[in-house]
Amino acid sequence: MKGWNVILQIAKTHLTTKLKSTVTATIGVIFGIGGYITLVSFMTGLNDMLDGLILNQTPHVRLYNEIKPTEEQPVDLYDAFKQAVPIIHSVKPKQNQRKIHNALPIINYLEHNEKVLGATPQLKAQIFYLSGTIELGGNLIGVDILKEAKLSNIQDYIVQGTYMDLKNTENGILLGAGIAKKMSLSAGDRVIISTVKGDQFPLKIVGIYQSGIADIDNIQSFANLKTVQRILGEAENYITDINIKLKEISEAPAMANSLEKQFDVTASDINEMNAQFETGSNIRTLITYAVSITLLIVAGFGIYNILNMLIYEKMNDIAILKAIGFSGRDVQQIFMSQAMIIGVVGGVTGLLIGYALSLTIDNIGFHTEALPTITTYPINYDPGHYVIGITFALICTFIAGYLPSKKAAKIDPVRIIRGN
């Protein structure tokens, strides 16, 4: 076997004497890796943005009392009817109390659970917003705003004012952006809240909340938990929802199942609440990787074709090398070296170009009223994408170079010299 210095020198000579073919093959790898990095960075960034938009506003587990028909009807309690087939019409749901029984001890238990990051109480009320002659139906959610700010990113969606303004204003409200727009209200104005019983309360608008989801912004507002309890005339332990954030989101289904049995309440986990969104997100990720891998495979075919042609053009050189003592393995290593040089140069250059394109997209302005916290197109700079890119480039070029180099190693120099 010849030394690696000799093999690399011959490989370098082949690449530089056929510079046009070398550049074409390298561009193929650069295009594949650069396209992969740009596409996967943008698409995963977009997925992360949408996940954050939807999932950050959704608790990992939600505890509440759901109104539903009673599983055991009165007729089931009579032995005389057990052998009969009762036919009952117009069964109505049992009117359960919306309040979660022992909500405060449950929150205290959850806050000491090692799997729980935090638990926040909420009180949801159906109300009407009144301003002048305008009357709009909607929801008012009473929250512990400091806990909400700690466990969610609610502060990112407050486009006027801050969450501390709500904390410091007893009769304050963070009004939904859609409601504020329809009623021509802004921070500092007052809005009248009317309960379903007809009681009215004036609240000062301390900020505007805009989630980016029109269906929410058109009906939903936030106030302090005690303010909503006072508006409804309820005690301080009147809580309708407990939102839970876990340290590991994957434990949400098991935790929801456990809490539902333990506290006799309805528990929904994040997968159940966002099943359709989760499916869409998985499909987008699948499409991203399918397109990216296709780009890399196309680049690999380009390298294979170019090296194959290079071998036909270098038949005489291969015959001479074998005639002066180079073995078939030496010849194979020469062509494999050429493929790997193209892979390394093209792969690293592709990573740099992909990073530069991602940086360019990241600095392009993107402004929309629906997403006030987004100012540029989303990009994910996960180093794992770059490791996958260069690894795939080297694997593709290795496979693309292996088959032609194996063919070159089997060339009979006598047949080539006789043919000439």
Q: How would you describe this structure to a colleague?
A:
With about 425 residues, this protein is an alpha+beta fold. The protein folds into 2 domains: about 200 residues, no CATH class; about 170 residues, no CATH class. Helices cover about 55% and strands about 15% of the residues. The protein contains 15 helices and 10 strands. α1 crosses α13 and α2 runs antiparallel to α11. About 35% of the residues are buried. The model has no long low-confidence stretch (mean pLDDT about 80). It comes from Christiangramia fulva.
Describe the secondary-structure layout:
Elements: H1 4-17, H2 19-55, E1 61-64, H3 103-111, E2 116-131, E3 134-143, H4 145-151, E4 158-160, H5 163-168, E5 172-176, H6 177-183, E6 190-195, E7 200-209, H7 214-217, E8 220-224, H8 225-232, E9 241-246, H9 252-263, E10 266-269, H10 270-273, H11 275-313, H12 315-323, H13 328-362, H14 383-409, H15 413-419
Parallel strand pairs: 3-8, 5-7
Antiparallel strand pairs: 1-9, 1-10, 2-3, 2-6, 2-9, 4-7, 6-7
Helix pairs in contact: 1-13, 2-11, 2-13, 2-14, 11-14, 12-15, 13-14
Quick summary of this structure?
The protein is an alpha+beta fold.
User: Based on DSSP secondary structure assignment, what is the total number of beta strands?
Assistant: 10
Helix content class? 40-55%
User: In total, how many domains does the architecture comprise?
Assistant: 2
Shape: elongated
The separation of the N and C termini measures 27 Å
Mean pLDDT: 82
- Total of DSSP H or I helical runs spanning 4+ residues: 15
